[in-house]
Each structure stands twice: as structure tokens, then as C-alpha cells.
Amino acid sequence: MAESKKNAIRGFEENYKKLEKLAQELQENNISIDDLVPRMKEAVESIKICKEILKETKAQLTEVSSEFSELNEA
Q1: What does the pLDDT look like over 27-61, one tens digit per residue?
Q2: I need a surface site. Which of 6, 67, 70, 73 has the fewest CB within 10 A?
Q3: Half-sphere exposure of 48 toward its Cβ, with a 13 Å CA cutoff?
Q4: ∠ at Cα 70 (65, 74), nearest 5°?
Q5: Is residue 30 a part of any domain in this protein?
Q6: CA-to-CA distance for 47 and 24, rounded, in angstroms?
Q7: Half-sphere exposure of 43 (CA within 13 A, CB side)
Q8: How many angstroms separate the first and last alpha carbons of the chain?
Q9: In this predicted structure, what is the pLDDT of residue 37?
Q10: Quick one: pLDDT at residue 68?
Q11: What is the DSSP string of 40-72?
């Protein structure tokens, strides 16, 4: 696996875990009002990163699928 793909996967997993942790903290009321806005801003950034990685992954999967289709036609 290329290094950039490893970094993308790691980036997705790290950001997804941040979002899971925040969700749990919110459900358990473990975030002070002082920390709420900065943590939500961090969550928005994590969501953006995850969405971009998913978008790139979808494009790559579409490309691979197309390559498989071309192999079947040959």
C-alpha cells in the first residue's frame, strides 16, 4: 500500500475516533460549556477530513471497478 494511502486511512481512523469520543462525551454530559465550542469546531474539521477521504476513496474505487470491467471485456 502506498504511503499516502496509509496516511489517508490513518487520517480517517484518527478523525473518526475523535468524532466517536466527542459523541460519547456529549451523551454523557462530560464536556464543559467552556470546551463545547472549541470541541465542536474540531469536530467540524474532522468531518471535513473524513468526507474528503471518503470522496477520494469512492473515486479510486470507481476507477478500479472500471479497470475490472475493461478486463472482462477483453
Answers
A1: 999 999 999 999 999 999 999 999 999 999 999 99
A2: 73
A3: 6
A4: 150
A5: yes
A6: 16
A7: 14
A8: 27
A9: 96
A10: 87
A11: HHHHHHHHHHHHHHHHHHHHHHHHHHHHHHHHH
The position carrying cell 476507477 is: 63
Percentage of residues in the chain having pLDDT higher than 90: 77
Secondary element (H or E) of residue 25: helix 3-27
In-domain check, residue 34: yes
Q: Is residue 7 part of a domain?
A: no
**69 is in which domain, residue-wise?**
17-73
Location of C-alpha cell 468526507: 51
Q: How many residues does the chain have?
A: 74
**Cα separation of 47 and 41, whole Å?**
10
Number of structural domains in the chain: 1
